[in-house]
């Protein structure tokens, strides 16, 4: 099978870290670069986290720091309640030797797409600032994007407000730019990621693999599950971001439904909501394939084989 070329645009973040792990040594995926954005923590911290994950896993993937602030709003929303002070509390890493590339993340996205044959999938798992900035700086990249598989939004309940999900509300203007870009979008929202809860038996299953990659997973999930329980009362946290790469690896993983989806960038109460026209009331052409269901067993099998790909 030909490898699918991807750019991971992320804000690590525990679930972003597992997404990097899942993509990093997969025979079906080629990661061209990791671009980092502020989100779960400040840009400085999320960039350091991305580098730490790559160094720990021995992944030679270039890491580019992108935007540290939303496109228009002046205050960056962070998620320290879930991801801790560092943005990746839990694992203890060796001193960091790796450095980010000199090129800005947005410039890298533009360059990679302009030099491509239109075969790159963008996989954003943080606020969409880098992707939207790239689209505005160089609109010629837009037709070159093969598709966008993003974690964000929900057609049911949000996780920051009843209406909105974190990645979208953190930069709703950027999300608006992306959802109106005209490129094919798969929206992996909370509606499906809340079905892949990382219960203790999942953690035990991965721990038995007994390798450094498995250790990283266990250390990440130890903190993540603790904070998810404090904030939401769940025994296992939803492993949001890896559903993106898992769905690229297995096109049958998700059930999706085409929906016209509009990001609310106007209201107060529902700001940042992805309004998904589930029933097609608007008669407007769908701009997103919205994930509505997931094969949960298959997902954990993909995570297990992703960990096993790192060997002993
Ligand atoms: Ca994320």
UniProtKB/TrEMBL annotation:
It holds the Pfam family IU_nuc_hydro. Gene3D superfamilies: Ribonucleoside hydrolase-like. CDD domains: nuc_hydro_IU_UC_XIUA (cd02651). Its EC number is 3.2.2.8. GO terms for biological process: purine nucleoside catabolic process. One of its GO terms (cellular component) is cytosol. Residues 6-301 form the Inosine/uridine-preferring nucleoside hydrolase domain. One of its GO terms (molecular function) is ribosylpyrimidine nucleosidase activity. Keywords: Glycosidase, Hydrolase. This is Ribosylpyrimidine nucleosidase.
């Amino acid at each position: 099978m030909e490898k699918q070329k991807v750019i991971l645009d992320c804000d690590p973040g525990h679930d972003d870290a597992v997404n990097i792990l899942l993509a990093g040594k997969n025979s079906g995926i080629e990661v061209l670069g990791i671009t980092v954005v502020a989100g779960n923590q400040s840009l400085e911290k999320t960039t350091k986290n991305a580098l730490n994950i790559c160094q720990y896993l021995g992944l030679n993937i270039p890491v580019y720091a992108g935007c540290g602030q939303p496109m228009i709003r002046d205050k960056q929303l962070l998620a320290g309640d879930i991801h801790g002070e560092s943005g990746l509390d839990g694992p203890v890493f060796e001193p960091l030797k790796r450095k980010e590339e000199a090129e800005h993340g947005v410039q890298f996205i533009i360059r990679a797409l302009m030099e491509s044959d239109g075969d790159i999938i963008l996989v954003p798992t943080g606020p969409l600032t880098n992707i939207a900035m790239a689209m505005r700086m160089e609109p010629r990249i837009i037709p070159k994007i093969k598709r966008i598989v993003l974690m964000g939004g929900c057609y049911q309940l949000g996780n920051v407000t009843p209406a909105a999900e974190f990645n979208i509300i953190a930069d709703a203007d950027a999300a608006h730019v992306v959802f109106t870009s005209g490129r094919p979008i798969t929206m992996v929202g909370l509606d499906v990621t809340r079905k892949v809860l990382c219960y203790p038996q999942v953690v035990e299953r991965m721990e038995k693999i007994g390798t450094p990659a498995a250790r990283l997973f266990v250390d990440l999930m130890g903190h993540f599950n603790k904070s998810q329980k404090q904030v939401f009362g769940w025994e296992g946290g939803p492993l949001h971001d890896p559903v993106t790469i898992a769905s690229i690896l297995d096109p049958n993983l998700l059930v999706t439904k085409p929906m016209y989806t509009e990001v609310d960038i106007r209201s107060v109460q529902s700001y940042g909501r992805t309004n998904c026209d589930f029933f097609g009331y608007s008669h407007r052409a769908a701009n997103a394939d919205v994930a509505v269901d997931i094969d949960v067993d298959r997902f954990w099998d993909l995570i297990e084989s992703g960990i096993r790909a790192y060997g002993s």
